[in-house]
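Lab notebook, bench 4. The sequencing result for the construct came back, and we need a structural model before the next group meeting so we can plan mutations. Quick request posted to the team channel:

Model the 3D structure of this chain.
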Amino acid sequence: MVCWAVPLIATVFSLIGRKASHNEGVHGFWLSIMLLGGALFGMVDHLWYGELFIIGANWAMDLALGGLITTGITAGWGAIVLKPRIIDSMRHLSNQIGILK
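Done. Here's the predicted structure in token form:
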């Protein structure tokens, strides 16, 4: 029942990495906010059902689920960040090929 801990740990590492690299860019900020939102959602969900600090017999599966949640959040963030770059490169490529005139 500790699947929320993985996005929370990823949030802490994200914030530490941003401070250490002195990168105050908006993309890293939004990644931290999205990871924190995923962790808070998991906390509220488990608190609602009274399982916030219960460590079940299958804790490795809970951590794997947290890893999957963190991967999904990071993939969604990556799609949002890279979408304008992909669209611009596709537009440039189609202009070079002559598809769009």
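The chain has one domain: 5-97.
Will bring this to the meeting.
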